User: What shape does this take?
Amino acid sequence: MRLQNKVAVVTGAASGMGKAIAILYAKEGAKVVVSDLNLEGANTTVEEIKSQGGEAFAIKTNVASQEDIDTLIDTTVSTFGTVDILVNNAGIMDNFEPAGDIEDDKWERIFAINTTSVMRSTRKVMPIFLAKQKGVIVNIASAGGLNGARAGATYTASKHAVVGFTKNTGFMYAPQGVRCNAIAPGGVETNINSSMTSINEYGIGRTQAGMALSPRFGKPEEIAQVALFLASDESSFVNGTVITADSGWTSY
Assistant: This one.
């Protein structure tokens, strides 16, 4: 029970990696707040947690909304008393557009969900963490946040920003007992592809050669194990860094 009596908030937890993280955290003793825009899916995650003896509740959250993020954290505190672990998992893909084909509204939406939400939720929990001189943030970045062509230019830029934000936050608050790390997954079997609506033929064509080098797709549960390590005291000396989980894809 590596997270016994901890309170964890997981965004995008109705499916995929977020769901796997929420379920594993609950198994390890955490009280879990299952946050997602898809409330029905979030409730399904909660039901699975409770069926295994865990404690959790679901809350509908649009992470692109400051008001919703405030409500998420405030409700967590009013229900469970505090926040110990924040997992910024919610995210969407672009359509593999190169720079010349980017549309402003899509750029702004992807950054709002993938990047600005990470800043806002971190900003919101920081007073809680600083008050007790302890707290953990796990950001879900991407292999696309470490390299140039795992997606389109917008998604790539948004995840590079998450990596930079993670490193800065981990360093800035290390003396106050706050750790902030990220996971950079490779291709994982989730429904994120459903956020792609009209694939850019040029963009996808340019990335295909590298995509074919991926040894295999990962499972959400494999990413959850990394997230558990980062949330637990076993990673007490790990801060301000990114763990790549991609079966060796980016090592080529």
